[in-house]
Every structure is written in C-alpha cells, then in structure tokens.
Write a structure and sequence with these properties.
The complex is a heterodimer of chains A (223) and B (226).
Chain A lengths: L4 E5 L4 H12 L5 E4 L7 H6 L8 E4 L2 E4 L1 H11 L10 H27 L2 H21 L13 H6 L1 H13 L10 H12 L1 H4 L5 H19 L2
Parallel strand pairs in A: 1-2
Antiparallel strand pairs in A: 1-3, 3-4
Chain B lengths: L7 E5 L4 H12 L5 E4 L7 H6 L8 E4 L2 E4 L1 H11 L10 H27 L2 H19 L15 H6 L1 H13 L10 H12 L1 H4 L5 H20 L1
Parallel strand pairs in B: 1-2
Antiparallel strand pairs in B: 1-3, 3-4
Helix pairs in contact in B: 1-3, 4-5, 4-7, 7-8, 7-10
The chains are: A alpha+beta (223), B alpha+beta (226).
C-alpha cells in the first residue's frame, strides 16, 4: 500500500518541528515542502485555507492542520512508538500539559523576550510561575513522557532550543539551573536525543531571525 | 477526595458554557455524576486543590483523580465510556473535529467576548470578525444535519453553546453576532441543536442567564470608563 506523506513546513517553525520529530520517531517516510511565509504556495493556501500556516500534513491527499491535532492524527494512524500513553487519565494529562505549553508558556516566555527593563522584570513573574508547574510535572521522570520522549515532550520541545537562543539575545537567564533543575536537565536530555539533535534549525539563522523579530516588536510598541 | 471511590464529580458553575459542554458529554454517555457548584468568584479549597494550574472550572474528578480543561475532559469521557461515541472513528475525521473545536475556541469565542466587552470601532471590528469566523465554521457542517452527521457528536457539543450565548450577548451589547443571512446553515443548526431535549434541559435558566449577562456587561462598561 502506497502511503503518501507530505509535510509543509518552514525551516524555523517550532510547530512544524514537532511533526518532523513525530514522523522520525515513528520511522515514517515523508516528503518535505519548505514554504516561504512571505510567498505562500497555492498548495499551502489550498490545504490550510482557514489559517494559511505551517505545519500542514498531507496524508494520501488529505490535509491536516494545527500541530497538536496533527500529532494526535499521526499517533492514531501509525501505532508504532506511541506518543500518548495508554491510560485515559494519563492521556488527558498529556493533552492538558501540551495545551498549557501553547496557551501559557509560549505567551509568557514571549512577553519576557519582547519587553525591556521594568516591564521585562514584571513579565518574568508569570513566566516563572508557569515554568515551575512544568518543573513539578517532571518530578521522578526523565522526560514528560516518562522513560521515553512522548507527546508532551514534543509539544514543549521548542523550549529546549529556543530558550537558550532567547536568553542569549536578551542577556537574561530564564531557565536557571538552580531554580529549575529538572526542567534544565530535561532541556539537556531532550535536546541531546538523537532524533531531536539532528533536526534543530541552524543556530545562526535562528539568532538572526529572533533578534530581528525582537527589534521589530520593540520598535512597533514604542510608536 | 470527592465522591465515592469510583464516582464521578463535576465542579462547575451554572453560567459557564465550559462546564455545560462537559455536562452534555456526561448526559450523552449516561454517566452518573455528582455536581458541585462553585460560587464564583469565590473559589473553594477543593477547586484550588484539584486545578492548581488554572484555578478554574470545570474540573472532573473520577476515581479521585482530577482533570481540567473542558475539551480535554470531554475526550477523556469519550475514551472511558465507549458507548455513544462522541468523536468519529476515523483518525482524519477526528482530526477535523479537533481542528474545528480549536478554531471555535480560539477564533470565534475571543471575538465574541471582544464584541461584547468593547465599544465603538473596536466593538464593530470584533463583531465583524466574529461573523466572518462563524461563516468559516459553517463550512465544517458540509451539508450535514449536525457536525457529527445524523446525530450530534464532539464538535456539536464543543461549539453549540455559542448559539445560546451569542444571542444573549448581542441583545445585551447591542451588536449583531448571529447573522442568519450570512450563516443560514449554521443558524439552522444552532436552533436544532439547542432544541434537542438532552441539550435544552441542561441549559441554564434563560432569564437568570440574561440578568447575569446584563450585570456582567454593566460591570465591563464601568471598568472601561475608569
């Protein structure tokens, strides 16, 4: 049976990276289509007319959008190397934490990143509160998924790469090894895992991109 | 620990659409549960203990273990009680249902709230955005009776409450949210869905909800002035 799997992504999108990881972990062969966000392909617009964003997974001609929705689709379609646990309560907790990552962690870290001075200090408070919840969730575990990388690890994985980059750009330590030892260790362990390590986007490119994003955001805010 | 060992307890609030959609899921699955009303804005020690991260309802407690976030809870209910499935079987259709539930929560609901809580140009823009997003949501019906097909499913109970709240919100805030000409199919679906006995009997008392909505709106308008 011929499986046609295509992934529409950009070189830097952390959301698309979740899908790359999932496909690699499951050993699924796929074709990558790199999109230029300033010039979106007709295919992308056709396959994700609602949001016009990456990632989009195309499986046998059927498109799926929204990275966490795609992860669940992948887990339900290809049963090897399961990402979600078997137990319904644990599955629900995994969904809860992935949602928490996108709804709270992302925004609060971004706030710290795009602010300066006193505002940045103030933004650190909710960011730290949120990160402490993740710290608590790692107690007694190597990964959020337990012994092996799972759904929540993939959902939060962007932290393992982006935090270091953002800290370098703003000159501020956000994930302090003393204050958040388990999370720091997880960032290391996750980031060093073979499939993960091999797929990080080019560091220099990321630094440039996020520096530019920060500068633009600060400039726009001061108008 | 809430309830008996194997029991199901739902911490809710009478005016919350998020608690409501969990109630709908429990009713559709014929799950026996104990309901505990939170007297918001006061939060009970139990709520703070069971949802320390968000401190919000709804919280479902099953066999002593709490769960938060209404759509997460609904998927849990669907997985534990397997009869009358809420999500379709096919992974692609499951993905579509999840996609549209997320769209409604992230695009329709915030626009509705802004249209309700803002004034002037901001309100006009928000209402326009809401109407457009509801039009987009309508496309997910794909000519079916319900989002779930012949019978209601996950997506119907995830978004159906909007039909009730939007009608109330537009009356109180004085801005059009449900444009029947723009969304003829969705309007019909809202009506049919909310008239289903199992759905209708769980709705909060409409006069009480209207008074509550008016009160909330007044509060928001006063806060905007300060």
């Amino acid at each position: 049976m011929g499986e046609e799997v295509k992934l529409f992504r950009t070189w830097s999108s952390p959301f698309a990276l979740r899908i790359v990881w999932a496909l690699r972990i499951k050993g699924i062969e796929y074709e990558t289509i790199f999109e230029d966000i300033s010039n979106k392909s007709p295919s992308l617009l056709q396959y994700n007319p609602v949001h016009r964003k990456v990632p989009v997974l195309l499986h046998n001609g059927r498109p799926i959008a929204e990275s966490l929705v795609i992860l669940e689709y992948i887990d339900e379609t290809w049963k090897q190397a399961p990402l979600l646990p078997v137990d319904p309560h644990e599955r629900a907790m995994a969904r809860f934490w992935a949602k928490f990552g996108d709804d709270k962690i992302l925004g609060s870290i971004w706030s710290v990143f795009i602010k300066q001075g006193k505002e940045q200090e103030e933004a650190m408070v909710p960011a730290m509160e949120n990160l402490k919840f993740l710290e608590g969730e790692l107690k007694g575990k190597k990964f959020f998924g337990g012994e092996t990388i799972g759904f929540v690890d993939l959902a939060l994985g962007w932290l393992a790469n982006l935090i270091g980059l953002l800290e370098e750009i703003v000159g501020l330590k956000v994930v302090d090894g003393e204050k958040l030892p388990l999370l720091s260790a997880w960032m290391q362990d996750f980031g060093d895992a073979p499939i993960i390590k091999d797929n990080w986007p080019a560091r220099d490119g990321m630094i440039l991109k996020f520096q530019a994003l920060r500068d633009a955001t600060i400039a726009a805010a001061s108008k | 620990m809430a309830g008996n060992g194997d029991g199901v307890t739902l911490l809710g609030y009478w005016a919350s659409p998020y608690a409501l959609r969990v109630i709908w899921a429990l009713k559709l699955k014929e799950v026996h549960y104990e309901y505990r009303e939170e007297h918001l804005p006061d939060k009970s020690p139990m709520l703070l203990q069971y949802n320390p991260v968000h401190k919000k309802i709804p919280v479902l407690v099953h066999k002593g273990k709490p769960l938060a976030e209404s759509l997460v809870i609904i998927e849990y209910i669907d997985e534990v009680w397997k009869h009358n499935p809420l999500l379709p079987q096919d992974p692609y259709h499951r993905a579509k249902a999840r996609f549209w539930a997320k769209f409604a929560d992230e695009k329709c609901v915030p626009a509705m709230f802004r249209a309700f809580s803002k004034v002037g140009e901001e309100q006009v823009q928000a209402a326009k955005e809401l109407r457009e997003n509801l039009k987009t949501l309508e496309s997910a019906l794909e000519g079916k009776q319900y989002f779930g097909g012949e019978t209601i499913g996950f997506l119907d109970i995830a978004v159906g409450w909007i039909g009730c709240w939007a009608r109330m919100n537009e009356e109180v805030a004085g801005v059009n949210m449900i444009d029947a000409e723009m969304i003829p199919l969705l309007s019909v679906w809202f009506q049919k869905f909310l008239e289903l006995p199992i759905i209708k009997e769980c709705l909060p008392p409409q006069d009480k909800l209207l008074a509550h909505t008016k009160e909330f709106h007044k509060m928001l308008m006063m806060a905007a002035l300060t």
